[in-house]
Amino acid sequence: MEDTSAQFNINVVKYFIVASLIWAILGMIIGVVLAAQLYWPVLNFDSQYIQFGRLRPLHTSGVIYGFVVNILMGTSLYIAQRTGQCNLYNKSLAWMVFWGWQLVLLLAVLTLPMGYTTSKEYAELEWPIDLLIVLVWVLYAVLFFGTIGQRKVQHIFVANWFFAAFIIVVAMIFVVNNLAMPASFMKSYSVFAGAQDAIVQWWWGHNAVGFLLTAGVIGMNYYFIPKVSERPIYSYRLSVIHFWGLVGFYTWAGTHHLIYSSVPVWVQNIGIVMSLILWLPSWGGAFNSAMTLLQNKKKLKSDYIMLFFFSAILYYCLATFEGPLLAIRWFNMVAHNTEWVIGHVHSGALGWVGMSGIAVFYYFIPRLWGKETLWSNRLIKWHFWLAHAGVAIYAIALWVAGIGEGYMWLAQSDNGSLLYSFVEAMDYKAPWLFLRFFGGALFVLGLFLMAFNLFKTVRSPATVVAKEA
Hints:
Blueprint (H helix, E strand, L loop, with lengths): L10 H29 L12 H33 L6 H21 L15 H23 L8 H20 L2 E5 L2 E4 L3 H36 L6 H14 L15 H13 L1 H16 L2 H4 L3 H24 L1 H7 L3 H30 L8 H34 L11 H38 L10
Antiparallel strand pairs: 1-2
Helix pairs in contact: 1-2, 1-3, 1-15, 2-3, 2-4, 2-6, 3-4, 4-5, 5-6, 5-7, 6-9, 6-13, 7-9, 8-11, 9-11, 11-13, 13-14, 13-15, 14-15
């Protein structure tokens, strides 16, 4: 059968998806190295270039901007074409976006280990690179919205609404948060200070999670979950409600990171209330995706790509339950600044975003290269269990470490003195930090199995896929 994707511009999509896979592996390898350094500090090797403080932003940038942004750019450009029954707005512009974004990532690899940083969470890159990011993002927006604008069908599929939201909101909050006065070629100072800087930073930091790691991934899944389950979206109306719920409330929730700070209490309260409200659209969307998969229970029992998607939904439910819970003051008092927060972040990052990305890689890459089946079903089974063991060990270890750590920090004797020293708290959580490293290593091992399986699939004798992506 003729490959129907030939009528669309898919070459640049292939490059984005492969780049995403490469950055996922590199970014998470760095994460495992960092986890190892926390348990074995000697692995810093007394080097200023590979110590935790410099590698950590490289890890987050590699995963967020390398793995996630590449896969979202690639899938959004494909889905915009497929659902709009049109070609890309401009093929040359697409290649400019691809190579421009890889240049951003290369500059991050070069500058962050050298110590060039703004020290702002998820926004560490210095001002010349920020200008390049803005330029590439504008070109991406022109490309995406130009493609949507020339669609041949009247309806705009809901996945494209989520992609549009992540493009617009990320652009807005990135620019505001990164407003700075350059002091030299690679040093700048934020135009904001004190509490203002904290509010703007977490307006950005939380919504980088909310719109890159959540809205964008939801948009991707709203296309691929119906494809892999061979069923329509369970409730299209609910998907639209899901969209407006996230867009309406997510941007207000960032100040829950600033509880018990000098930020005004009413600003903290907005973050708490909006975080609690977010339970509703988040779980409504999770229910919608889960029911889409459950419409084909027979296939769900044996199809590991569907099971990866289903696992991602369960971790999405967990993360969107735990986040609002951590925003409640009395809960935050125990958990804030402990390993519990790291466990929460990674149960979402590895469980929700990671599992979603893995499912898309397994489903999408063979079809992009015209292959009907994966090279090895046994390897995907192994990967499934390695990934799940890795996330579970990682998250549970840090939940236990965080709860104990928070209790020890707060415990007081009758005269008001602390019962435990900081060193005693560190000694308590040390074995759990080892389990964190072990769980992360299992997850990365699974990524290597996936990369090998997909490489062998792509290199196998050509077989034109019978079902379009």
